[in-house]
Amino acid sequence: MATVSLAGPKEITIRGILLGIIITLIFTAAQVYLGLKVGLTFATSIPAAVISMALLSAFKDATIQENNIVQTIASAAGTLASVIFVLPGLLMIGWWANVPFWPTFGACAIGGVLGVMYTVPLRRALVSQSDLPYPEGVAAAEVLKVGTSSRSGAAEGKAGLRAVIWGSVASAVFAAFAGAKLMAADVAVYFRTGQGATGIGASSSLALIGAGHLMGITVGIAMLVGLAIAWGVLVPMLTTWNPNPALSAADLALGVWKKDVRLIGAGAIGFAAIVTLAGLAKPVLGGLQSAMAAARHAKTAGAVIDRKEQDIPIFIVGLVTLIMMVPAGWLLATFLQGGVLASVSVTLVAIGVGYILVAGIFAAAVCGYMAGLIGSSNSPVSGIAILTILGASLSVGMAGRHMMGPEVAHALIAFALFVTTVVLAVAVIGNDNLQDLKTGQLVGATPWKQQVGLLIGVAAGSAVVPPVLELLNRANGFAGAPNLQAISSTPLAAPQATLISTLAKGVIGNDLPWNLLGYGAIIGLILVLINFALKKSSNNKYSLPPLGVGLAIYLPSTVTLPVVVGAFAGFFFERAVSKRTWGEPAKRMGVLIMSGFIVGESLFNVALAGLIVSTGTGEPLAIANGLSETQLMLVATILGATIVASLYRWAASNAKRVHV
Predict the structure, then answer these.
(1) pLDDT tens digit sequence for 224-267
(2) Counting runs of H as helices and runs of E as strands, what totals does the chain give?
(3) pLDDT in tens, 508-551
(4) β partners of residue 189
């Protein structure tokens, strides 16, 4: 029988849990809005760690491990909110008019718990015995070490909290200018290219600038390539082949992009994700074998398990996994209850539960490995969602094929979307669990306590996703949805959910434009080959992530271009300070300001949605002014550039101060 070493530092505390839950609630609300508007989310570990250190520094007995638990709980916000990449599809197809609390909570919570369980056995192989870099996990650990190791570290922690606050306030004010119609919400130009048309646009969003900074220059360059392919090649080419002189340049270019180009982008993302899956088979199987071998060795050899190697026991992992299949089955059965699929509900529930069990394991393992390779923010969630909905649609479609009709097809699409929501929750939390465990390994944390902390974060995040989603549904609604209750005339784009619901309808309705997806797959193949050659010739120094390129083809340019600008701005800022003695603190301060950009703008817009609903007015902050569209675009550009440059300077000057 294995004996267990129990002694250790203070980790899970009531104050830490409460602080982690509060941060999770705030960040989840921000992430839900950001994901619905632009189709991107961001990692919350570093800003959560800084906030925790600044606040817990008031307690003399606070430890680095306690701060680590806070960021572990809060990290669930950045990942669990990714379920909104799928869930709004149920509103878009008209299956739901409102977002019900318990089915939404259940899908998030069940998927989140399974995401933790599925990745516990992979920790030894993919974290403690792996040479995967885990860039975001290592960065979070460095922030924790610096902030708790010395007096200057404590000073940097407090300055870091101010950086998050300043970034949040600045981006909220910037968003308020757009809400008040004192500047343009988008800066865009479209023009004719002979018989065709193209253009480029950028959303007036500091949150997207911040996301670009956090993603880094490699992803920024990949997205720039994707922009060039989409708007420099595909849009002008396809509009030339299908001219329509009656339409404006903007309507012609955007129409072709929505109808054709974004599906080509989806094909590129899907192909890149399949290549990723194929390459992960060996390390994932190796991880499972290593975990089982370690468990057998501990049991037979009577070994003492070091505190830093204690996971949730494998027996409990297996038991919880099996137990979670019961509420999963009940949730799926309730979803089908009383509908046109009642006669095949037992078969569909069995398919759904089996799919969650099997596809969830693969999705969690792939995303977890990718978190180790390129960071959780860059993990291929979009590709996983595409492959998952294709698999789910094919599976449930076969079960209902014999009774197919318009109502049956509609119900099957809805069921496939709901099953995919659960699997995506599994994937993103599995992704996050391994990232957090790497941080924990570097700061001397106890793995099972982190795993419990993440389960707490899953519960908190699952509780806030439904009400925020419903608030935004009532205030703005979603593009393509009936929007029967939406007050504002500017629906949220929800680009990821739009794609996922389109794919589900295409597979089940048997009218998916496979030719467009095939063209995208060819582009994806070319990108994979270029990336392979680039990495090999540069000895892994340079790369061109195919998923980043595909995402930029698929997402609107108004989303992608600000991300590219943010990536390049961050690169030049970090290069400018890198040779200074205070360069590293300045880089960390820059990351926190950019995190604040995301939080501030997103929370402002959630609050604005509340104001829209409470007043019944679509534009409650609008102020009449005589500025032209060009002048409003100029205001947005100058104000945004001024804020970004000023706060970069602030980051540098504060880094000098705390470094002394």
Answers:
(1) 999 999 999 999 999 999 889 899 999 999 999 999 999 999 89
(2) 24, 4
(3) 988 888 899 999 999 999 999 999 999 999 998 888 988 889 98
(4) 200
The gap from C-alpha 122 to its chain's centroid, in whole angstroms, comes to 22
Q: What is the DSSP letter of 482?
A: -
CA dist list (Å): 453 to 75, 220, 478: 10, 33, 33
Q: Looking at the predicted structure, is the pLDDT value of residue 285 above 80?
A: no
Confidence bin at 560 (pLDDT 50/70/90): very high
- Alpha-carbon distance of 10 to 302, in angstroms, equals 27
In the Cβ-directed half-sphere of 398, how many Cα atoms lie within 13 Å? 7
What does pTM read for this prediction? 0.88
Contacts (Cβ under 8 Å, ≥6 apart) of 464: 24, 25, 28, 29, 32
Residues 440 and 65: their CA atoms lie apart, in Å, by: 8
Instruction: Report the relative pairing of strands 186-193 and 196-203 from DSSP bridges.
Output: antiparallel
424 touches 385 (CB < 8 A): yes
> Residue range 8-15: average pLDDT?
87
- The span from the CA of 456 to the CA of 334, in Å, is 25
pLDDT of 299 above 70: no
The whole-angstrom separation of Cα 351 and Cα 368 is 25
DSSP state of 479: T
What number of other Cβ atoms are within 10 A of residue 308's Cβ? 14
The DSSP symbol for 82 reads: G
The DSSP-derived string for 319-377 is HHHHHHHHHHHHHHHHHHTTSTTGGGHHHHHHHHHHHHHHHHHHHHHHHHHHHHHH-GG
Q: Tokens for 233?
A: 């090649």
Measured CA to CA, the distance from residue 577 to residue 11 in angstroms comes to 35
508 CB neighbour count, 10 Å cutoff: 25
Taking a C-beta distance cutoff of 8 angstroms, is the pair 167, 595 a contact? yes
User: pLDDT band at 2, cuts 50/70/90?
Assistant: very low
Q: Report CA 428 to chain centroid distance, whole Å.
A: 8
Q: How many other C-beta atoms lie within 10 A of the C-beta of residue 275?
A: 19
User: Can you say whether the dihedral through the CA atoms of 240, 244, 246, 248 is positive or negative?
Assistant: negative
2's tokens:
């294995």
Distance (Å, whole) CA 489 – CA 491 = 6
Amino acid letter for position 327: P
Extract the tokens encoding 345.
């509900």
Cα distances from 9 to residues 68, 127, 145, 270, 363, in angstroms, run: 12, 21, 15, 45, 34
Give me 498's structure tokens.
Answer: 């739009």
Question: 199 pairs with which residues across the strands?
Answer: 190
Q: In this model, does residue 620 exceed pLDDT 70?
A: yes
